Amino acid sequence: MKSTTPTFVVELPLSVNDQQNRFLTKAFEFGRTLYNATLSSALGKLQRMRQSQLWRETRSMPKGKTRSKRFSDLQKSYGLTENGLRTIANNHRKASGRNDIDAHEAQCIGRTVWRALERYLFLGAGKPRFKSFRQGLNSIEGTDNHEIMFKTERQAIIWRKQVLKLIIPDTDYFKEVLADPIEPTQTKRIKYCRIVRRTLNGKKRWFAQICLEGMPPVRKIYAPQSEVMGIDPGPSGLAYFHPQEAGLVRVAPNVDMQEKTIGRLQRKIDRSRRANNPGHFNEDGTVKPFPEPWKVSHRMEKLQVKLAEHHRCLAATRKRDHGELANFLLQRAGTIKIEKNSYRSYQRNFGKSTTRTGMGAFVSHLKRSAERANSRVVELNAYELKMSQYDPITDTYRKKALKERWHRWGETDILVQRDVMSAFLACYVTDNGHDRTRLLKEWATAEALLSDSGLCQHELCNDQGIPQEVLRLTSPKAKKAEGAEKKSIANILCRK
After folding, report:
1. Phi, then psi, of 139 in degrees rounded to 5
2. What is the value of pTM for the model shown?
3. CA nearest neighbour of 223 among 361, 374, 347
4. Do 257 and 356 touch, CB atoms closer than 8 A?
5. Distance (Å, whole) CA 460 – CA 452
6. Which of 130, 227, 295, 494 suits 302 as a labelling partner, its CA being 20 to 30 A distant?
């Protein structure tokens, strides 16, 4: 049963010797085989259930509560539930005759199999896959603090008589989190522990995740829910508007994809693969269907490790930048309003930018951080509000091309940055939609704020009567011509 109390996780590296490394490697390999055996049994039961006469009869029934109830009863009769798969995993452990892991760890492996099967059955996810020897199992956890145990006084994880020392940083945060249980005012109940295996620069490293009850210690001072902010996410950045602050920020600014480096590594790997497996390819260079096992050279393995390490560093940097930006926003507002977007559409239309920034992952990170900080993230209906099209002055909607980055305020000469305008509208949106009266009232203050930030400007015209700001800010060709003109003037001055 899922716990209802809040939980937070503290991850710490483990210091293991050769004997402990062999013990952990052996236990994780047995956990992998146990996972595959449990998944095989579950898929077999699923196939037999779908081939039964009762399943076909139930499937032909009209949709409703009766049909759903019969499906649920049929699923339980075949043991395709969380408890059923936990029992199957423990039975496989007993039948193996091995004692590398205990019953509680085996039950957690069965629960992991159930979660993968549940996504396949009910959420439209792909069919669960078996874990190969090269991929392996990445984590093993217990059901409570009695199998994989964290001992505060020893500062270590104890599992099957193995004492795995923790490397704990000497900071106030970890002192508060891992407080001595002798002091009752600082006690935090340990729910369970998890051992995680990661590959860093081609080498296996071991970590312990201690799952504690309660909320984590506060390291940031977050704003109350009465402070409201509107944000408008884009492929590579977002605009935010608060009555006292507004701006444009980049998401994951420190992520450098280094596409050329990745491309070189991928080409080297492909050349090595083709040289070692000439019989796996057709004359036109395509891969033959159902080839034999691939041969992997040591050089190719090193290249794959280098590529994997590059992507791992990118993911870690991206996650760190997401956390910093989420804290930045939550320190200024406790209620954040955001459009409900399709981030898969972002991937289709802005592939490179979305790969670098991970906008969908950032929004998920923001929601988790807001829940932990007792804040709110309110998702708005983009199809009804049309914030990039609405003009409060005329109370009309006008669809803009993607290249139009500036919004004209009514029929005036005021130009507002398009994304910041959407964030401004999101900040003051109500349950009934746009509150035009309030928007016009708040605009006087917002105009001064945006003007100081350079996000709101008055339009200037050139000799031909064409607005210069529009030419400079909305026309890529005009911007390119302006740059070429400045460059030619600079060359003439240098010659003089």
Report:
1. -155, 150
2. 0.80
3. 374
4. yes
5. 18
6. 130
